[in-house]
Amino acid sequence: MSNFTKFYESIFIIFFKNWLQNSKEKIKDWKKFFSDKKFDHFERIVENIPKMTPNFLNIETKISVTSTKQDNIHLQKRIKNLLFQLSPWKKGPFEMYGIKIDSEWKSYLKWKRIIPHISLKDKIVLDVGCGNGYYLWRILGKEAKSVIGLDPSIYCFFQFKAIEKLIGKKKNLNFLPIRIENIPHLKIFDTIFSMGVIYHQKSPIEHLNHLKNQLKDDGELILESLTIHKKYGNCLVPAERYSGMKNIYFIPSIDMLKIWLLRCGFSEVEIINQSVTSKKEQRATDWSKRSLLQFRTNLNDVNLNFTEEGYPSPTRTILLVRKKKKFTEIKF
Fold this sequence. Notes:
GO terms for molecular function: transferase activity, transferring alkyl or aryl (other than methyl) groups. The protein is of the alpha/beta class. The chain is built from ten helices and 13 strands. The chain has a single domain, classed as Vaccinia Virus protein VP39 (Rossmann fold, 3-Layer(aba) Sandwich). The protein is globular. It starts with a helix and ends in a 9-residue tail after the last strand.
C-alpha cells in the first residue's frame, strides 16, 4: 500500500494524459505530503483491516455492507477497534458488517437536500474537499460514470482507504490526497461538488476559478457555503475563530456569493437549499468526540443565533450553478 506514486500515476494515465509528463515533481510532492509522522501509524491500521467481500452492498440509499462473516464476533470486534483508531470520523454514517460508524455529521441529510435537483447517471464527477469519501460512494450509487475525490487530509485519506478495503475497490472511484490547485485545467467534469470548502479559502475567487476550469461547458457546480444574512453586511471576516473553527476567512451574504460566481463566469445561479444546522445533524459522538456546533450559544436546538465568539450564526446555503458556454463570434 505504501507505493502511492505508482497508484496515482495509473489514475493520471487514464484521466490526465497530457499533463502527466510535466507533473513528476507534483507526484513526488504527494509522497512528501505523506511524510507526516502519523502516516506509518495509519498505514499499519489500514493494512491490518481484513479484506472483506460483501454479500450485499448498498450505496444508493445509505452506505451499508453485510456479509455472513459478520457473525464472527471476534472478527467484528477487531475491525471495529481498527476503524475506531482512525477517529475522528466527521462524515458518515457508515454501516460496515454490523459496525455503525456514528460520525459527527449525519451527511445523508445534506445529500437528501441536493439529490432531487441533479442527475449523476453516466456523469464524470469531481468532489473537492471530499473528506473521508462519504459522498463519493453516494455519487457512485447514483450511477456516475467516474468519480474522483480531492482532499489533502491524511485522516480523510486513510478513512477512505479503510472503507474501500471493507467494501472492495471500484475502478471508477478514486481519491487523490491533493488540492484542486495542484491539478491542471482539465475541463472534463460534468458535475463538481464543493461543499464546505470556499470559506476556508484565503482567495474565494481563485477557488471558484479553479472549479470553473475543471468543468465542461454547461457543466454544473454544486456549491455549499456558510452565508450570513444581508443585514450583517456583504461579507463577514472573522478576526480569529468562527464558531470554534480555524481558517475561516470569508463568509459572504448570498448576494455577494452570487456576484463572485457571476464574475468568475458562472451563470444560472439557483438556490436549492438553505438550512440552519441543528444538533440532530451535527453532534459529538463516540466516533467524533468534539463537535463544532457546541461553539454556538445554545439558545435552542434549531435557532442558534450567535456563535460563542459573538458573531451572527450562519445559514448553510447550497447553490446549483452552471458554467457559461464560450461565445464564438461568427464572421460573415
